[in-house]
Prior knowledge:
With about 300 residues, the protein is mainly α. Helices cover about 55% and strands about 5% of the residues. It has 10 helices and 4 strands. Strand 3 and strand 4 form a beta hairpin.
Amino acid sequence: MYPRLSDIFADLFGIQLPFPIYSFGAMVAVAVLFAIWLTGREIDRLYNTGIIPGVKMPQEGRRRSKEVSPSVLLGTIAIIVVVAGIVGAKIFHILENLDRFWLDPGGMLFATGGLTFYGGFLVAGAAIVWYLRRYDLPPARFADAGAPGLMAAYGIGRIGCHLAGDGDWGIAADMAAKPDWLPMWLWAETYPHAIIGSPPEPVHPTPLYELAMASILAAVLWMLRKHPFQAGWLFSLYLVFSGAERLLIEQIRVNVEFDLLGLVVTQAEVISVGLILLGLLGLWFTSERVDTPSSTTA
């Protein structure tokens, strides 16, 4: 594994970069940029078809204003996502690993890894809703526009987890159960040079499984983005997809477990079930068809 992308340059080209480029951070940056780009395309479509309003932006030294697509706000939203997302992800990771946190609070707070996606998702989401309301923009429509990008970004971020070897791997791989047609690197990974230490035996590379699932689900959401239902329908479907994907992967993923009403569960499983239920509820309330201006326009 390559916790630092700069190590790849050293191995492949013999070039020692003067500064480290951490794999996880680099892939998070790529994920955010891709999500912003994809969301911007959809927001422009919604604006051009009259589904969402524009925003007034100052022109010519602030003496005049001009209405433009709300996609111009995505730069600021990206900053909000990164800052609030990292804070939320770190908080949830600490809550998920309180025993390790009390042993080394400073080490966990300032570690380059150790981020829980759902924590970042919840905190960043709340911050974005607050920001959009400042411009009187509809959060539900923006949530729909961002759903495919969010799913794709999750998969891209998992590449960083895989390269860094930050512990987001699966249980020990049963070699006897391996299908003959499946390459070994998709069934059993030893994670050499992992940032938190390699597992004692080959394990399922669950970040790669999540990358594959997230890519497929992102494509489905993108194809359904011109849906005829109420605002929030696509994002509700995203919640169902996201929760179901994570709930499935948790069955073969190593994670901290605890007792809940007599059941042994992980924090991610609890949140996943909550997202599925919330998404199903959202689908129920937004499934009425509505007329939108030129909803089939590309």
